Amino acid sequence: MAKKKKRNPEKMLRQVQDSLQALPYAIEEHRQQGRWGKAFMLRYVSGPMLKLMNRALGSKRYKGPEGQKLKQTDQMRRHLQQKQAARKQVQEMMRGNDPAEVMRQVNAMRRKAGDPKKAAAQAKKKSP
């Protein structure tokens, strides 16, 4: 029997973090496609498990000398990759759909995920 390769905990943490970021979009997509059971499982079973794994792997990673946080350039690179993935998803949605329907879907996803631009604008209005 072949020996199982040990997975790199740093890569596993990255995958878990990326999955957590994409979770609201996946849930919304399953709901729109009528897969209520799958959306339920993602939200109430897989979601908490991913959060638990993220907490455990994160606390394990940031202990010790090799557990330094990412440099700002690496953080920005990952942020840009996430934005590109989101842009690609919206472009795929737009193919063959009514533009007004696409905007409704995008706005629903933003409301669900919490749009940072909108939050900043609201905070600006509240401050004197």
Notes on the protein architecture:
By secondary structure, this protein is mainly alpha-helical. The protein has a domain at 9-95. It has helices at 9-32, 36-61, 72-94, 99-113, 116-126. α1 (9-32) runs antiparallel to α2. The longest helix has 26 residues, at 36-61.
Shape: globular
Radius of gyration: 18 Å
Distance between the termini: 69 Å
Q: In DSSP terms, counting alpha (H) and pi (I) runs of 4 or more, how many helices?
A: 5
Give the rounded overall mean pLDDT.
79
Counting helices, strands and paired strands, the structural category is: mainly alpha
Unreliable sequence segments: none
Helix coverage percent of residues?
over 70%
Number of strands: 0
What sequence of helices (H) and strands (E) makes up the elements?
HHHHH
Tell me the major beta sheet: none
Kindly estimate the percentage of residues that lie in beta strands according to DSSP. Answer: under 5%
